Structures are given as C-alpha cells and as structure tokens.
Amino acid sequence: MTVLYVQLYQNRMVVRNLTTRQQASGNHVFSNQRIIIANFFEAEGFLAHLIQQVAPRTFMHFIPWVGRLDILTHALEMNEGGLSAVEERAILEMTFGASHGKCQYPKVIDSETLLSDEEVLATLRGWNETAPHEQKPARGTKIIS
C-alpha cells in the first residue's frame, strides 16, 4: 500500500509519497480569509493532480483491492481552535475524491506542527490498529474520521 502525507496550507498543498520519497507541491487558489477549503472542486482537482505526480495510476489501479492508498491529510494553517465539522468533512471528501476512491478511509489531523515521516507512519499505524471510537492521536493532534 502506498502511503501519502498531504500538507494543507492556505492556497498551497504538498503531497509526499512516504514509500518512494517523492514530493510534489504547488499553489492554487482554493482558500479564502475564513476557511481553508473555500472552493471544494478547485482543491479536489488540485490535490488529484499532485497525487497523480507522486503516485501515478496504472492499469493495476482498476483491479479491486490493488493500488490502494493510505492518506493522512494535515491541515497546518487556518486551524486555530481546531477545524469545524464542515472543514473536517470537506477535507475528508476532498481527499477521498482526489484519490479516485483508492483511499477508502482518509485520515485528517489538524495542528501547526509538521510531522516527520516516522510520525506520519506511527499516526496511521495507531489509527489502523484501534477502533474508530478509540482513536489515539499522535503528539497531541486531533484525528478526525
């Protein structure tokens, strides 16, 4: 399974493939002064473009249960006081749609501290090993399901 770490900033995204160590980033207008995902379709399309750069789709992706992605999306800006339920859902839906359904259960965290590759893997491992109602956030972050 390919592991992706999406860093979400105001009008900027960075996608890192932890498996291959490839990274793609760019700026695109999808935020406004109040919400990080103000234009959902622009954000989703831009994220899909970045995911395609670091985890290209092949014919194997059309085979069920092959080519799965495990994605942790990290809102690093505009998260003072935590994300609202609407922002959380928008980020989850954006990630799911941008992965073309290859990430069945995207994960979202919100903090202002960038995670290392090891911390991303530990967060995902902790998430996958516990039941959704027994979430164990890494380093004081809030995991959103």
Structure description:
InterPro entries: YjaA. This is YjaA family stress response protein. It is a single chain. The protein has helices at residues 40-54, 85-98, 117-129, and strands at residues 2-9, 12-17, 23-27, 69-75, 107-110, 142-144. Helix content is 29%, strand content 23%. α1 (40-54) packs across α2. The model has no long low-confidence stretch (mean pLDDT 86). By secondary structure, it is α/β, with parallel strands linked by helices. β1 and β2 (12-17) form a beta hairpin. The two termini are 20 Å apart. The longest helix has 15 residues, at 40-54. It contains three helices and six strands. The protein is globular, with a radius of gyration of 14 Å. Strands 3-2-1-4-5-6 form a six-stranded mixed sheet, with helices on both faces.
